[in-house]
Inverse folding.
């Protein structure tokens, strides 16, 4: 994790070198990394079973913050998203921490369902999961809402929810697509979908970002142009290169070899998390790590996928690499919980019947 984060700092330093306030962004990222590592170490020393007790209170706290930003928050003027708040002079995004408390609550209810199945516990699981998702959607932060939904889907899949429910949910989504397009989606969301499908139809406006992103990544070829030597990224042809589109810096300056190296880092991190989940001493720990792994996996897949044109643009940062203090600290909190489960795992892998 530290090696990957240090690589992320180097890439971020290159990405911010040519923009105003770039040094400040990098220093803030370093400070966030230090805070995150300390919190991860502290959490690793605490038995994750204590989250059974404090988890509901943490969930209520983050839910209250999500409600607060609906009225007092600020965000992007172009999309109307309001997902940030100020704490002691620093900007903070409550939804980042809410992802973790969401996973804790879902793990609690899934563990109860494993011990004693019942409609009441299933209903509670659905209600407690829907509340933060609805609040994040109300903030017009569709990308983060997708993280919650994907994480929930991964957890209930691992729990063993019958396939027919997933098929029913997929069918319901497909059938409701015309309604969602006409009444639910905002203009900027529709534009992102159309840009994903037909980026060449508006190359100077809506399709500019994705077209330049793919062109920039491809220009790195095999070995890249060298750190700090990217032409497209250093001259500002790729918007939001320090955050959502930081993978373009990796592609152009480190090339195919560097991009594959980053993917191997990500693969190893996720594989280790899966190993910890399979070897947890109990179901609660397994569900915890599964949810956190799903959360990180969606960020990795969506961020890289949207920069190379495989997935729609959703404003999802690349964990441990993209600029963002709230995301860095929250991701290391997640890693701290994984470490706590790992340090207390049993020696043998779960039997398939368990």
């Amino acid at each position: 994790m530290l090696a990957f984060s240090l690589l992320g700092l180097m890439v971020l330093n290159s990405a911010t070198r040519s923009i105003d306030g770039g040094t400040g962004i990098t220093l803030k990222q370093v400070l966030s990394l230090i805070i995150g590592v300390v919190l991860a170490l502290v959490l690793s020393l605490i038995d994750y079973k204590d989250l059974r007790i404090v988890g509901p209170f943490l969930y209520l706290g983050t839910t209250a913050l999500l409600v607060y930003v609906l009225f007092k928050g600020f965000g992007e003027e172009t999309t109307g998203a309001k997902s940030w708040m100020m704490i002691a002079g620093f900007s903070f995004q409550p939804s980042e921490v809410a992802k973790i408390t969401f996973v804790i609550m879902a793990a609690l209810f899934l563990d109860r369902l494993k011990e004693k199945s019942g409609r009441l516990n299933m209903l509670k699981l659905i209600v407690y999961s829907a509340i933060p998702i609805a609040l994040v959607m109300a903030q017009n932060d569709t990308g983060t809402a997708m993280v919650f939904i994907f994480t929930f889907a991964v957890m209930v899949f691992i729990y063993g929810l019958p396939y027919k429910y997933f098929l029913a949910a997929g069918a319901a989504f497909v059938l409701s697509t015309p309604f969602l397009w006409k009444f639910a989606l905002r203009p900027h969301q529709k534009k992102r979908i159309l840009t994903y499908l037909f980026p060449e139809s508006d190359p100077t406006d809506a399709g500019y970002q994705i077209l330049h992103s793919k062109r920039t990544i491809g220009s790195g070829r095999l070995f890249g142009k060298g750190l700090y030597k990217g032409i497209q990224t250093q001259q500002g042809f790729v918007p939001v290169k320090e955050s959502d589109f930081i993978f373009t810096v990796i592609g152009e300056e480190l090339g195919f070899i560097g991009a594959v190296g980053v993917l191997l880092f990500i693969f190893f991190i996720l594989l280790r998390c899966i190993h910890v989940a399979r070897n947890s001493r109990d179901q609660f720990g397994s569900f915890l790590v599964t949810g956190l792994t799903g959360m990180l996996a969606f960020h990795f897949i969506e961020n890289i996928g949207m920069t190379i044109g495989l997935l729609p643009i959703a404003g999802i940062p690349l964990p441990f690499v993209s600029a963002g203090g709230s995301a860095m600290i929250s991701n290391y909190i997640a890693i701290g919980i994984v470490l706590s489960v790992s340090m207390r795992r049993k020696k043998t892998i779960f039997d398939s019947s368990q």
In short: The radius of gyration is 20 Å. DSSP finds 13 helices and two strands in the chain. Residues 2-343 form one domain. The mean pLDDT is 90.
